[in-house]
Amino acid sequence: MALPTHFQLKAAGGKIVDIPAVGFGTWADSEASWCKDAVLAALKAGYRHLDCAWAYGVNKEIGQAIRESGIPREEIFVTSKFWPHFAAPENVELCLDLVLKEMELDYVDLWLAHWPYAAKPISREALEKAVGGPTKTDEEKGETDDNGKPAIDWEHSSARIAKAAGKQGSFAPTWAAMEALVTKCKARTIGVSNFSITDIKDLLPHVKDVPISCNQIEVHPWLPQNELVSFAKENGILTSCYSPFAGQKEDGATLLKDSTVIKLAKKNEMDVGQLLQSWAVQRGTSPLGKSSTPARIQSNIKIRKLADEDMKALDALALPDGQGRTVDFTEDWGVQLWEN
User: Fold this and answer.
1) Mean pLDDT of the 246-267 span
2) Is 56 a catalytic residue?
């Protein structure tokens, strides 16, 4: 049996929206010049799911690639996200408007809260002229505290994060603002990113007309997030996976060069990226691999079903106590983003 080409997202009014199982990631920590050609190559290779965010700073390049591809807009699934200093309810729509303007699109298919905490912007005017990307302008950083870290808007942060700092907070008002964007037809579905089980449990009682359709988190064999993925499935929430190839650990180790991964890829006549994306889809999750190399872009989407023994061998690579995490901004941001 072949792996699924699409998963289903819960949408408003009990409707279902199909999302391509394999997405193409557009995050970068350098200049945006790579993005247009890479996205265009991805679309030509058959990708129809683009994972984007205001903070990536490549919205214009993505929009250009979509137009140059000649592929009808309705055939491309576009995800984007708002950064924490747009998280106050009155600013969520502004961020989406900035994304749509830069991409020259009328709507996104999935609009996510990038993180479960809110940061204080310098001002509404600063947000209106803020530009995302790796340059980290003052407008993007927002207000900072005495230590130079983002000043936290505890009131609109998740209850878990606020409580850890001895404060009170709730993401519910922000979620209500996100629901309104579906009513306005600016987003087809909405969801969250980097939310823990506790964060989602705190939010679920406040979900009214539009369901939580997705939680985007870091997932790969080193960090399979089994409990969080299972919880999401039980609640009809799709898990999309950033960093499906993992990053480089402090000791220099990379998942792409792991001996077990290389051995299994060779056994299945796959590239290592293709193997890891196949593992993710076979688990019922949506991987968002990224590459700027045309050959790898083409191979990463060619997923195939793996034997049970191969899935178990990849599962066995999991590291204990979250040690497999390769994306962690907690120290930089001064808030406890992850649960122990």
Assistant:
1) 93
2) yes
pTM of the predicted structure, to 2 decimals = 0.96
Distance CA 152, CA 112 (A): 19
Per-residue pLDDT for 334 more than 80? no
CA angle, 24 as apex, 21 and 25 as ends, to 5°? 125
Residues 6+ apart with CB under 8 A from 262: 272
Listed residue (152, 153, 151, 127) closest to 140, CA to CA: 127
CA atoms of 233 and 316, how far apart (whole Å): 21
Is 220 assigned a ligand-binding role in the annotation?
no
d(C-alpha 228, C-alpha 38), whole Å? 31
- Give dist(CA 192, CA 82) in Å, integer: 10
Catalytic pick from 47, 56, 117, 242? 56
With vertex at residue 45, the alpha carbon angle to CA 40 and CA 46, rounded to the nearest 5 degrees, is 105
**How many whole angstroms from its chain centre is CA 318?**
21
At 101, list the tokens: 């303007």
Judging by beta carbons within 10 Å of its beta carbon (0-12, 13-18, 19+), is residue 337 exposed, middle or buried? buried
The alpha carbons of the chain give a radius of gyration, in whole angstroms, of 19
6-62, pLDDT tens digit by residue? 999 999 999 999 999 999 999 976 667 789 999 999 999 999 999 999 999 999 999
In the chain, what are the domains? 13-333 (3.20.20.100)
Token pair belonging to 206: 């406040």
Interval 237-255 mean pLDDT: 92
